[in-house]
Automatic annotation (TrEMBL):
Source superkingdom: Bacteria
Protein name, as recorded: Tetratricopeptide repeat protein
Location of the Tetratrico peptide repeat group domain: 625-744
Residue ranges annotated for the Mur ligase C-terminal domain, each copy included: 434-554
Domain named Mur ligase central: residues: 183-395
Annotated TM spans: none
InterPro entries xrefs: Mur-like_cat_sf (IPR036565), Mur_ligase_C (IPR004101), Mur_ligase_C_dom_sf (IPR036615), Mur_ligase_cen (IPR013221), TPR-like_helical_dom_sf (IPR011990), TPR_5 (IPR041656)
PANTHER family hit by this protein: CYANOPHYCIN SYNTHETASE (PTHR23135:SF18), MUR LIGASE FAMILY MEMBER (PTHR23135)
Length: 749
């Protein structure tokens, strides 16, 4: 059934109980390039049970009446019979076209969702007459089932109705007068569109773009809403003084209305993954890829088609283009890069940590280091690295100066200002002390959720947890929603469910939540709470967060409310340096790891302390650097000076894997200055968390000896050795050794 607000018509029988032999389920006017033609077309969905139920002899007779001498109708109700009907419809459509003076009318016929359904498409010049022609195919197909009527009479009667219809207006699709890029794909469309627009504005070009968030001119939103279809193209291209237009082009607009432009100068396809399957006749990834490929077929011959060389369905689109290919790939050895170059195109990839452009002749053009591209989160977000490659290639293909492309990559950040709702990253102070990282993202399918969780894990401090607010729009397949629950259960330590009511799209909240819970249960995650809003789900996660944790929220409807809450509670948007610090810390490293390593290459202990002090002075409040200064003082015998610094580092939030080391080194220094009881308490605390830490076990023995507990020290060392060793001889004497230990000091348990 057609959606409200679209230009289509639906015809139904007067008797709701009747099952007519022919029914027109939909007539849709496609204004621009579409799945069937590179020009405006009429799409008709025909339901034809009368043809599927014909006896074979009757079907053969009808074929002969239509001049189809070699037709093989097949058995009733079979796919072979459907193919026969498709051929018959093609024949009839061309005869109608000849009768109305359209010459050899272009025809596309496809199988529908059942064997009784057939999709017919043909070009049109005049809207009203084209729509009437589509509606009349019900009459002509029904008339042909009447064996008492002459075929010519049926066709002439229908042709007369079509010819009597008024012409109506012509196509409203726009022929651009400025360079235009069309961006499509399952994930990354909006980010790539915004990045390209940022590069164009960096070059001083008057730029407008459309996306699922609205129509934007030079960074100012002119119209809010989903403008990823023809209305967005019109809003962009009607901008006064426009130099360049960038159009996010979603599947829905192309299927329901066609593209909004007759041609583009550059097209981009980011990827194809499962999303919105089961809607508008698109049930498989291959069918979805065919829809996405529409933007590539109308790219001008002198233009560029930017394709994801790591996605086989996307890379296969090169076979249907007239323009030059430009492959992007995260793998510098990808065959797609060399195929593109050998075909006279270009490639773009990451080589030695840099984004480089590859061309048929010449060395790679090194644009920028990945760590200097903020949108990649210091290389953590593989998806955004791919988007950066695609956006840079497309901008260069549009003629944007190289310097503006490089500067755009350096300055486009994953923050609310540049890329609202896409991996926006914040630092949020916690009431219990420390800070959590918050990531707000529009992740809307399995691939998006996996990417969000990968980034969350990469920003969590060592030992930190990922806490997820899970939800999606209701117009996803049941299997996809269940799969997202399973992915969430695998990837997060805590999950809460949330409802985005504006995005339910006909599905009941309890049904949506139930599917998520089914997926979570598959991986053993049960009793998951749910909340009626995205903000409420987020607020439920915050009290559970500890220092270094990450709260990841799939946020669709309440981005503004969540952003305001974070800021009102002292949270701040992370800049590129903060993100890099978190990424490095998540690996147990420090952003100044090289400088720290250099400290311990200094042989002169006094010079080492001076260098460590310089680092602390340059980066005040950094607990890791304070810890290294303490170690430098400790190594030259200044235990008293080291003790205060160890305590300062621990109080400042020093994280693992350095925190327990600082506790042990502090304990060692306390022991040296005669504070053995304090040292013992510290070591005991470390062993509670790390019972088999050899350094802690040995230090405990030394402290026990200082406290006059020599027998206990020896006993504890024997027991610890028995627990840890795999030596065969020691195992042979296990019972005797345990008895000796008990004789020295009975076990506390």
């Amino acid at each position: 059934m057609p959606h409200a607000g679209t230009e289509s018509s639906t015809l139904t029988p007067n008797d709701p109980e009747a099952v007519p032999p022919v029914r027109v389920d939909e007539v849709r006017v496609l204004d621009g390039p579409n799945l069937y033609f590179a020009r405006p077309a009429i799409k008709v969905i025909l339901h034809l049970p009368g043809y599927l139920d014909l006896k074979r002899s009757e079907a053969e007779t009808l074929a002969r009446r239509l001049g189809m001498r070699s037709a093989r109708p097949g058995k009733r109700g079979t796919a072979l019979r459907q193919r026969f009907v498709m051929r018959l419809i093609r024949n009839v459509t061309r005869r109608v076209g000849t009768e109305i003076g359209a010459g050899r009318l272009g025809v596309r016929v496809r199988a529908g969702q059942t064997v009784e359904d057939v999709v017919l498409a043909f070009p049109w010049v005049h809207r009203t007459r084209g729509r009437v022609a589509g509606e009349q195919f019900g009459a002509v197909m029904a008339g042909l089932l009447d064996s008492s009527r002459r075929v010519d009479d049926v066709i002439e009667e229908v042709a007369a109705v079509i010819m009597d219809a008024p012409d109506g207006p012509g196509p409203s699709v726009i022929t651009p007068t400025v360079p235009v890029a069309s961006v499509t794909g399952t994930n990354g469309k909006t980010t790539t569109t915004r990045l390209m627009a940022h590069m164009c504005m960096t070059a001083g070009l008057t730029t407008a773009w459309s996306s699922t968030d609205g129509v934007v001119v030079m960074g100012e939103t002119k119209e809010e809403g989903d403008f990823s279809g023809p209305a967005g193209a019109r809003g962009v291209l009607e901008t006064p003084g426009l130099d360049i237009g960038i159009l996010e082009t979603a599947r829905g607009g192309m299927l329901l209305k066609g593209m909004g432009v007759t041609a583009n100068d550059v097209s981009v396809v980011t990827n194809v993954s499962a999303d919105h399957l089961g809607l508008q006749g698109i049930d498989t990834l291959d069918q979805l890829a065919e829809v996405k490929a529409i933007v590539t077929t109308v790219t001008k011959p002198q233009g560029w088609v930017v394709l994801n060389g790591d996605d086989p369905r996307v890379w296969a689109m090169r076979h249907g283009i007239k323009a030059k290919p430009w492959a992007f790939s995260l793998d510098p050895a990808s065959p797609a890069l060399w195929e593109s170059i050998n075909a006279g195109g270009r490639g773009i990839t990451v080589l030695d940590g840099e984004i480089v452009v590859l061309s048929p002749n010449g060395d790679p053009d090194r644009l920028v280091k990945i760590v200097d591209v903020p949108m990649t989160l210091s290389g953590l977000s593989q998806n955004n690295i791919a988007n950066a490659l695609a956006g840079a290639a497309a901008a260069l293909g549009l003629g944007v100066p190289r310097s503006a492309v490089v500067e755009g990559l350096r300055s486009f950040a994953p923050d609310p200002e540049h890329n609202w709702g896409r991996l926006n990253t914040y630092s949020l102070p916690l009431q219990q002390g420390g800070k959590a990282t918050v990531i707000m993202d529009m992740a809307h399918n399995e691939a998006g959720l996996e990417a969000l969780l990968d980034v969350a894990r990469g920003l969590a401090a060592p030992g930190g947890a990922v806490r997820l607010g899970l939800g999606c729009a209701g117009d996803r397949a049941d299997e996809a929603i269940t799969a997202m629950g399973e992915i969430a259960g695998h990837g997060a330590e805590e999950v809460v469910l949330k409802i985005a009511r504006p995005y339910l799209r006909g599905r009941q909240p309890d049904e949506l939540l139930g599917l998520f819970r089914d997926g979570l249960a598959k991986v053993g995650v049960l009793d998951v709470p749910d909340y009626g809003t995205e903000l409420a789900a987020f607020e439920a996660l915050v009290p559970h967060a500890l220092d270094g944790d990450v709260i990841a929220l799939m946020c669709h409807a309440e981005r503004t409310e969540v952003d305001r809450w974070i800021r009102d509670h002292g949270g701040k948007v992370d800049d590129a340096r903060t993100i890099r610090r978190k990424v490095v810390a998540a690996r147990g490293e420090h952003e100044l790891e090289a400088e720290i390593a250099a400290l311990w290459d200094i042989d002169d202990e006094s010079a080492r302390v001076t260098a460590a002090q310089d680092l602390v002075d340059t980066h005040p409040g950094d607990p890791r650097l304070v810890f290294e200064l303490a170690g430098a003082k400790d190594s030259m015998g200044d235990e008293q000076g080291a003790i205060g610094l160890y305590e300062q580092a621990l109080a400042g939030g020093l994280r693992e894997p350095h925190r327990h080391r600082a506790q042990l080194q502090l304990a060692s220094s306390l022991r040296v200055v005669g504070r053995a009881a304090e040292a013992q308490a510290l070591v005991t605390g470390v062993l509670e968390a790390r019972p088999h830490n050899t350094a802690a076990l040995m230090l405990r023995a030394l402290v026990q000896a200082d406290l006059g507990q020599e027998r206990q020290a020896v006993a504890d060392l024997i027991r610890a050795t028995l627990e840890a060793t795999t030596d065969v001889d020691t195992q042979s004497y296990r019972r005797a050794l345990r008895a000796y230990a008990d004789e020295l000091a009975p076990a506390s348990d």
